[in-house]
User: What shape does this take?
Amino acid sequence: MVLPTTLQGNLMPAEINFLAENETVTILPRYSMKKIELIGTPIPPLRAMRREKVPLWVALILKSQDKCNIVPPKWLNLAYLKEKHEEELRKPNQFSDLPWHWQEIAKILLARAQDDLSDPSHQLRSVIQDLREIRLVKSRKGLKELNESNISLNGLSLLEINELRPFVLGVMNKLRSLHETTTTSKEVDEDMAEVSDDDY
Amino acid sequence: MSNYYDLDDILADGEKVPCKFNITVPGLGYLQGNPGKPIEKDTKIELPFWLAEILAVCIVSDESQQSFIDMIDPEFINSKVVNAIKSNPTSVDLHKLLPHYYKLIEKWCSMFSDEQLIDNVMNMLKERSFEINSFANNVNKQVNSEFIYTLDEFEKKLFKQTSESNKLMRNWLKE
Amino acid sequence: MNIDDILQEFEESETPVTSNIHNNLITAMINERMSPELLPFAQTTMTTALTAISNQQQYLIDSHEYGDSVGSTSEFKLNTMIIETEIERLCYLVRMYLRTRLSKLDKFTIYYINEEQEDSKLLSAEEKEYIHKYAHLLTQLYNNCFLKKVPPSLTLLDDTSGGQSMITTPDTNQHVFVKSVTSKPITLFIDNDDIELKRDGIYVVKYGLVKQYIELGDVILI
Assistant: This one.
């Protein structure tokens, strides 16, 4: 019932997928629909051929019922992603600016809304794969900088951070406990001398 | 400091370290294999760390400043090992040397502060963890797995966590 | 003031109010998940969320009755399905939040029993009941298994004398991944260094250093 300790401190990819489904996308309804009063953002009344913004999970339900078409986000096209790939190659010490949930949204739309995308899906999949690999290689190289106090990694998306997290935190915490022995050894010696006297 | 119930901590505490008795103690001969006889002053014996810790700090009586035992530098920080750590950290066989290496170094250095040793061990951890990361993320099982057998307990846990996380990602991508 | 500043201020203040329940729940859940210690119970967020969920469920029941009498159309079914999915999603977030807190309570039981007496906002009423019952069950189990056969001086479970405390305390010096969401730069002082947290930058720092900023909302755990 309680959360298993293996999940504490890190998310599973499926949970990150869930969070990604809360992002807003633009849809093109094919029929009209009444307004829906949701707890979060209320869904506005939908009229055919008039674009509206809704959360991704709503868009997927509507799409599965054939009630709408999903407008792909501005960044999900071959040209933009190829340019980002070039940017990654040009700047070996920095990550290019991609949306927080780019991998999840790309995967969902490629699987469920292929016909709405402007480019053929196999090309998109391959450029996404390339982007992912080059960013992974860069982040692994950056792991050489691990130290016991702090590091910064701007530009990574949540899924990529989550992949590295157990390793990064494990090593940094161990480095920290090793380092702390040099600062606290004097205090511990005094404490132990006092306490052991009490026992006798 | 550390978790009272942590199993790794308890196991690490059981490691034996060499100690020298500062006084003669009657009746403890069984530690040496001579039951019934006393332990003479200046005898060297291996005691588990949890016992050695307390005895090394406790003072015998209010008059003398001596403690029951003196701890001697154990094998895992002698110069041969330290040289190996400095020159080629990824080839040191920590498992054979001391399975709970990092934990014991922490305990040892919290009693006797040794900045040099800590620096060397931290560097070793950094380099070895980089290797561990590349091994854990490598799907191809043909890779030479010699290195994996030389890991200590902490590194083994790290390896397991990293490969779990990697496996989860790969499974999700395949869906 | 520059026209750009005015425009930016206007943009920032335009965040819709209605999606706040979702975002608040998500932030509370992720913060709780990533932090090594128990955070104060998000009373307002939880009450708002739970009331909203039960209102929505009531609405569903009412409209079902209406639908049965009138004859349900496919659009009606779609409507109800979307509302039900949203309820499921919110319930999932609520469950994850509570489960995370419970796992921390299980791990650091005695510590939080002591803490709760000083700071009553840390646990909700149900959690207080849970932690006392859990501690009672656990001590009963230990007693029956072995403690009653051990000399009385060694039967304490919260003994703090001696070299090591028996109470497991959460380690607030653990590292966490954080992101700064405020435009004013935050400077953290660590030993002899200081690092600056810039807006939208992602850093890994010790939890204890950023704890106050997390409470203010300037920095979020990711």
Notes: The longest helix of chain A spans residues 158-199. The two ends of chain A are 46 Å apart (CA to CA).
